[in-house]
């Protein structure tokens, strides 16, 4: 069991000095190699929960165990991919992507370049491999950063709405690639989204959250075969049943 979230409560002190309960009694088990989506409206505590799992912040009570150890600080075993990306401005697109591969020392330099080029080709960025980040649009930069993270080989990937700023076509492409990388490297992935379609496409397990205070409403096991077809009956049926039960009004 790589991640166990046990009786987590998290409060912040508000500006008026009140105690603001953001997460209440969160219990969640994530299996080895599982792809779990946290789905819920803005403000329900998804980012807060991900930050706790990452070790970037500490719970008010309860504990999180990752790979058998209590989470007390960030670790290279749990890579975090946030909504905002940063590329190294002094490296080219190709160098940015191979950077992660070189850090883990897997494969030869040539193999790493070949892998990076293959992924850049798939997202239509191969012609920009020698460009620098400032020469790219925002969406292009995001795609580069996502590929770099995907190829990072972290056993646990924590992703906070990584595709939310992309247009639909690129979002779908990256979702497909995420599944490809996940199958190949068998990472455990916790993926935050407020998009029902994205959760149904990606997840083994969807954790539906409510807000005020943030809590788990329901956990749904998704056993739709992959690759999933958005126009299949079972896909649409699950999507509709989630939408009905989800209070996404913000
Ligand atoms: N550092 C903080 N201090 C005070 N309140 C915070 C802090 N971080 C988050 N919150 C509050 O916690 C709630 C949940 O935030 P967040 O985890 O970002 O939700 P989500 O990612 O689901 O949109 C929000 O009401 C937010 O204002
Ligand atoms: Mg968030």
UniProtKB/TrEMBL annotation:
It is an enzyme of class 7 (translocase). Keywords: ATP-binding, Hydrolase, Molybdenum, Nucleotide-binding, Transport. Residues 3-236 form the ABC transporter domain. It catalyses: tungstate(in) + ATP + H2O = tungstate(out) + ADP + phosphate + H(+). One of its GO terms (molecular function) is ABC-type tungstate transporter activity. GO terms for cellular component: plasma membrane. SUPFAM superfamilies: P-loop containing nucleoside triphosphate hydrolases. It is found in: Cell membrane. Its EC number is 7.3.2.6. The complex is composed of two ATP-binding proteins (WtpC), two transmembrane proteins (WtpB) and a solute-binding protein (WtpA). Part of the ABC transporter complex WtpABC involved in molybdate/tungstate import. Responsible for energy coupling to the transport system. Belongs to the ABC transporter superfamily. Sulfate/tungstate importer (TC 3.A.1.6) family. PANTHER family: ALIPHATIC SULFONATES IMPORT ATP-BINDING PROTEIN SSUB (PTHR42788:SF13), TAURINE IMPORT ATP-BINDING PROTEIN-RELATED (PTHR42788). This is Molybdate/tungstate import ATP-binding protein WtpC.
């Amino acid at each position: 069991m790589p991640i166990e979230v046990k009786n987590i409560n998290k409060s912040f002190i508000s500006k008026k000095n009140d105690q603001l309960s953001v997460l209440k009694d969160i219990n969640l088990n994530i299996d080895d190699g599982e792809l779990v989506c946290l789905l819920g409206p803005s403000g329900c505590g998804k980012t807060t929960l991900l930050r706790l799992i990452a070790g970037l912040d500490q719970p008010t009570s309860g504990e999180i165990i990752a790979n058998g150890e209590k989470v007390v600080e960030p670790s290279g075993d749990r890579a975090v991919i946030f909504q905002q990306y940063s590329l190294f401005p002094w490296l080219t697109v190709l160098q940015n992507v191979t950077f992660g591969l070189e850090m883990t020392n897997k494969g030869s330099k040539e193999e790493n370049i070949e892998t990076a080029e293959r992924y850049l080709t798939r997202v239509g960025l191969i012609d920009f491999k020698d460009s620098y980040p400032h020469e790219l649009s925002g969406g292009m930069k995001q795609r580069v950063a996502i590929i770099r993270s995907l190829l990072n080989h972290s056993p646990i990937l924590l992703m906070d709405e990584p595709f939310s700023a992309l247009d639909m076509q690129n979002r779908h492409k990256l979702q497909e690639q995420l599944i490809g990388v996940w199958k190949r490297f068998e990472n455990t992935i916790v993926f935050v989204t407020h998009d029902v379609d994205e959760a149904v496409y990606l997840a083994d397990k969807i954790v539906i959250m409510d807000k005020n205070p943030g809590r788990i409403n329901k956990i749904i096991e998704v056993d739709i075969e992959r690759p999933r077809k958005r126009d299949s009956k079972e896909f649409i049926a699950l999507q509709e049943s989630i939408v009905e039960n989800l209070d996404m009004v913000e």
